[in-house]
Design brief:
The protein folds into 3 domains: 6-76, Winged helix-like DNA-binding domain superfamily/Winged helix DNA-binding domain (Arc Repressor Mutant, subunit A, Orthogonal Bundle), CATH 1.10.10.10; 81-194 and 352-368, Nucleotidyltransferase, domain 5 (2-Layer Sandwich), CATH 3.30.420; 203-345, Nucleotidyltransferase, domain 5 (2-Layer Sandwich), CATH 3.30.420. The chain is 40% helix and 23% strand. The protein has helices at 6-23, 29-36, 40-52, 117-134, 172-177, 189-200, 254-257, 259-265, 272-275, 282-303, 319-332, 351-366, 368-377, and strands at residues 27-28, 56-61, 71-75, 81-87, 91-97, 103-110, 141-148, 151-153, 158-162, 167-170, 183-188, 208-214, 218-224, 227-229, 307-311, 341-344. Strands 6-5-4-7-11 form a 5-stranded mixed sheet. It is globular and about 75 Å long. 39% of the residues are buried. The protein binds zinc ion (ZN).
């Protein structure tokens, strides 16, 4: 890409101004120009355009001891909205979020067992249309992101493989786009979780981390040097137990630590959110935590991430159990591995939809990934 053409440079600077105003409050035009190293005239032109688009408004004035007090710029955070859909095996969550990722509406309904793609598409369309009909400004919606535990091809909107449902090469985005007045994107849920953690959480300090999505299955993603690799199948590390895994192997980590195995054991619960607080499941959860800690020692030894981040519905297990993972990990990992810290995801129970939302905010509004790429290109 070339950015020498003024219109393109202008677009990039417009995005930089928009991002700055979403990250910091109480800034005047002069502050924006100074922080971004832009001249005052072009800054004012960009700000005027953003005001015209109703993305920014001029609000209160800042108190100063000398001269005329500068007018402060305020991001109009509800001007644009995004649908974030997290498609899990047990539940489907649909959220409408604003530019700051704040949830304006939220709804969750059970995902049918062994659903057909048309069935899922129809229930998403129905829920979204219901939301739209109740909105004052449905034209604020800029797009929708759907995340699921599957291999996806984002460029074509195809679900390449979702083995839990036996889906292969499903043109899912195509099925939805015909019925919705905005752009639809799909993404792998673990990738979205790691993206959400960077967007809303506090991960800038770590240069490499391993994200464990601890839900029905155990999937992981490794983030390093600005790239995410989602191919890790942590759940299928052989642990020497005698249970048969869904993959066909015997003794995989998932047979003791995976949500699906726990749900099979406690048939009275329908969701992992219930299961984590189920009194009689405590011993099984402890065993799950123990095996997981062992699995994570392998991750730390092979990948050497700065942080191991545990997210997903099972990360919500009681504090004491969660801490036992860290304690066992520290006891068992080699003293040579000194740099890896285990932390809980900052996003909590809504991490699924927030992950999807972060993909949408980046793709449809803020383009932070693009800005990062440009920065790297000019370094
Ligand atoms: Zn397995």
């Amino acid at each position: 890409m070339r950015f020498s053409r003024p219109s393109t440079a202008r677009q990039v600077n417009r995005l930089r101004v928009l991002n700055l105003l979403s990250l910091r409050e109480e800034l005047s035009r002069a502050d924006v120009a100074r922080i971004l190293g832009l001249n005052k005239v072009s800054t004012s032109e960009i700000v005027d355009a953003l005001i015209e688009e109703k993305l920014v408004a001029e609000g209160s004035t800042k108190a100063t001891t000398t001269g005329r007090p500068p007018t402060l710029l305020e991001l109009q955070k509800d001007r644009l909205t995004i649908f974030a859909v997290d498609l899990e095996s047990t539940n489907t969550s649909v959220a409408l979020v604003n530019m700051m990722g704040e949830m304006l509406r939220y709804e969750r309904f059970p995902t049918p067992k062994q659903p057909k793609p048309e069935e899922i598409a129809a229930s998403i369309i129905q829920t979204v249309k219901k939301f739209l009909s109740r909105m004052r400004d449905p034209e604020s919606v800029t797009g929708m992101v759907i995340t699921l535990n599957a291999t996806v091809e984002t460029a074509t909107g195809t679900i390449v493989s979702a083995p839990q449902w036996g889906w292969h090469n499903v043109p899912f985005v195509f099925a939805l786009s015909n019925h919705l007045p905005f752009k639809v994107v799909i993404e792998n849920s673990t990738k979205a979780l790691i993206f959400g953690e960077r967007w809303f959480g506090n991960l800038e300090s770590a240069s490499s981390y391993y994200y464990l999505n601890w839900g029905e299955t155990l999937t992981g993603a490794f983030f390093s040097e600005g790239k995410v690799n989602v191919e890790s199948l942590l759940g299928h590390i052989p642990m020497g137990t005698n249970k048969r895994c869904r993959c066909g192997s015997i003794g995989c980590l998932e047979t003791v630590s995976g949500g699906w195995a726990l749900l099979e054991e406690f048939g009275e619960t329908t969701s992992l959110r219930q299961l984590v607080s189920l009194r009689k499941a405590k011993d099984s959860l402890q065993t799950a935590a123990n095996y997981l800690a062992k699995g994570l020692t392998y991750v730390a030894t092979i990948l050497r991430p700065e942080k191991i981040l545990i997210g997903g519905p099972l990360a919500a297990l009681p504090e004491k159990l969660f801490n036992s993972i860290t304690e066992q990990f520290e006891r068992e990992v080699s003293p040579l591995i000194t740099n890896t810290e285990i932390v809980k995801s900052a996003l909590g129970e809504q991490s699924g939809v927030l992950g999807a939302a972060s993909i949408g905010l980046d793709e449809f509004i803020f383009r932070r990934s693009l800005l990062e790429q440009i920065k790297t290109a000019f370094r």
